[in-house]
Amino acid sequence: MTCRLCGSARLHSVLDLGATPPCEKFLAATELDAPEATYPLHLRLCQDCLLLQIPALITPEETFTEYAYFSSFSDSWVDHARRFVADATDRVGLNQDSFVVEVASNDGYLLAHVAGAGIGCLGIEPSVNVGEAARRRGVPTVTAFLDEQVAADVRARHGAADLLVANNVYAHVPDLTGFTRSLRTLLADDGWLSIEVHHALNLVALGQFDTIYHEHFQYYTVLSAIRALAAGGLAVVDVEMLPTHGGSLRLWARPTELAAAPSPRVAAALAAEQDAGLHRVDGYLGLRPRTETIRHDLLRYLLECRARGERVVGYGAPGKGNTLLNYCGIRTDLLEYTVDRNPYKHGRFTPGTRIPILDPAQLDKDRPDVIVVLPWNLEAEITDQLGYTAEWGARLVYPLPTLHVVDMTEGNRR
Ligand SMILES: [Zn+2]
Fold first, then answer.
1. Nearest to residue 64, comparing CAs of 34, 36, 103, 102?
2. CA 48 to centroid of ligand 1, rounded, Å
3. Which of 148, 267, 370, 405 is an S-S bond match for 312, by CB 3.0 to 4.6 Å?
4. pLDDT digits (tens, 9 = 90+) for 109-143
5. Which residues form the C-methyltransferase domain (predicted)?
């Protein structure tokens, strides 16, 4: 096994989460008696370029051709996209002659704001069903995985992008250097690339182990992202810290040959990583004990609920929840079911742990004592959505960054 960025064979084990199924493989009832494939989930660090990575044991084609995640189901994502388009329009100076391309454009939740402003745009989205949803809302969308051939075809047919957006996709590409060259091909020579990825500083420092799953092949610090983009002829000029996914990076990059010197924010982000020890190997070794503590605290809490005869269910069925459930070994004896706002998931079961996923209306019918929130990164939004559970005094459990309980009987109703 070698590093997919620099080719080094010096990969150091950081966290071994055992073997689990791919986290987006929600099971239909008819699949429950069939075998279910599991794959090792073992995070390693390249000791030479410091890229955190797992082996690419599944292909993006297996995951994303019929994808269950529609970005528009999250209110906070839709707001996030609206603000991004407004900010990017100012930074890049977009006007009616500009052209915006988004890679992994999902259901068009972001480009809809670009199209709505009368600016030309194109989405590139591999999943047939979510790409169709984008076209229905008026966002032109090519159904494809971005590679160097697709990039050349799009540039020849539509022109180069003044703004190229690649949000929450840069972790999902096994051919990291080929994908990065494809981004450069799509981008105008004076264009801007905007990338959002989870920040590995938060993964390591806050024990966010549930962001590790088979579909995420690499996990970036600002340092390793600078190195990865440089391999494709792109230079990072600015970085923003975002609260999304428990702490993400928005990297702004431009073609190396014209890029200005990096902003002070890039230097500050690199300094924060260095202070946290992430520019050397031993700074990563605290992740394992942090992860084990989260597992032990959650299991202890659920076992205590069980001993008291309380009814415990989940809220949300995000991909990351499946890393948490599988690693912790939580099944229907400890979590009766979970609920999710995405109707695609209703009647399905979580991979590996086979916990039923129901409509959120079930909560009001059953009035469970305890609700474990799996998308813990949306704590404020979800505590708000679940304000009505104060009617029966539910307790909301957020397992990360350290287990904490929001008691809806004590004036927490919003
Ligand atoms: Zn490397």
1. 103
2. 5
3. 370
4. 999 999 999 999 999 999 888 889 999 999 999 99
5. 243-401
